[in-house]
Amino acid sequence: MGVNYDDKGVSRRNALKDDLRLIWRDGFHAFRNRSSWQMSPCNGCPLVDLCNAGCPARAFRAYGRVNNPDPNCPLVRQIMGIHIKWLND
User: Fold this and answer.
1) CA atoms of 54 and 56, how far apart (whole Å)
2) What is the mean pLDDT of residues 5-32?
3) So what's the pLDDT on residue 61?
4) 58 sits in which H/E element
5) Which of 7, 64, 70, 72 has its Cβ near the most Cβ atoms within 10 Å?
6) What are phi and psi of 2, to 5 degrees?
7) Are 37 and 43 contacting, i.e. CB atoms less than 8 angstroms apart?
């Protein structure tokens, strides 16, 4: 089974029912086209070339989109903590 993410959500494909060429071509399109240079704070991080914004699957699970940084990144956690603290104050 492959996953193709679009702005409307996740559409799943079944390898037993769908054309494998379509699954290969369309599946995980958002994951393959993910760009860490378009994400903040990753685009300003000196380590972006090493981590490439971390794991897109964790980003999808946390934020519902793959075009977000990995929530396990210490820098992302620090920034989110600052925002959460600011919201609670």
Assistant:
1) 6
2) 70
3) 86
4) helix 56-63
5) 70
6) -110, 165
7) yes
CA 43 centroid distance within chain: 14
Residue 8, CA atoms < 13 Å, CB-side half-sphere: 3
In this predicted structure, what is the pLDDT of residue 85? 59
In Å, what is the CA distance from 31 to each residue of 9, 17, 62, 68? 13, 23, 15, 11
pLDDT at 11: 58
pTM tops 0.70, yes or no: no
List pLDDT tens digits, range 29-81: 777 788 888 888 888 888 888 888 888 888 888 888 888 888 888 877 777 66
* H or E stretch at 80: helix 74-88
Q: Indicate the residue type of 49.
A: D
In the chain, where the domains are located: 1-33, 36-89
Nearest to 10 by CA among 33, 34, 26: 26
d(CA 12, CA 3): 5
